[in-house]
Amino acid sequence: MKDPAIVRDIQSHLSSKSVSRRRPGDSPYPLKFPSSDDINFDIWDHLFFVDRHCQRLTVHQFNSSPSTVLDLGCGTGFWAIQAAKQWPTASVTGYDMLPIQPDLNELDMHQDVADRIEWVHGNFLDGLPFRQGYFDFVRISKIGLGVPENERFV
Questions:
Q1: Which residue range(s) make up the domain with 119?
Q2: Assigned domain for 133 exists
Q3: How far apart are the C-alpha atoms of 70 and 93, rounded to whole Å?
Q4: Domain count, the chain
Q5: Could you report the per-residue pLDDT of 125-147, keeping only the tens digit for each?
């Protein structure tokens, strides 16, 4: 059996030694984005996962559709658009560092969801601009390369 005092001391020690060398606003993400190949991969990856394996947007089976959805690290926004189509009463927020999402008001094929999707830009490592508990469902996908191991999140 683990002694809780020892576990607490180790966690405290490791936390005190964890120092971030990243300046606020900087991103450690090592890849350049977006190239046309990256955008195509984002769409194909989604189609493969949804169409071939899961047959829905998430592995989780909802009893009722979420009403507020956050797609953290939304990239091209493809998943967020599909979420708004699948959950017609949901408000979907796509959050990403880069403004590479489409202007939905200019695309006829997405007019049905344009008023329920919002793109917000920033670095989640510096904190999110949303109040705690606001979203019913938060999706985080493909951001692992942008999360430094030595940075703490509270």
A1: 32-140
A2: yes
A3: 5
A4: 1
A5: 889 999 999 999 999 988 877 77
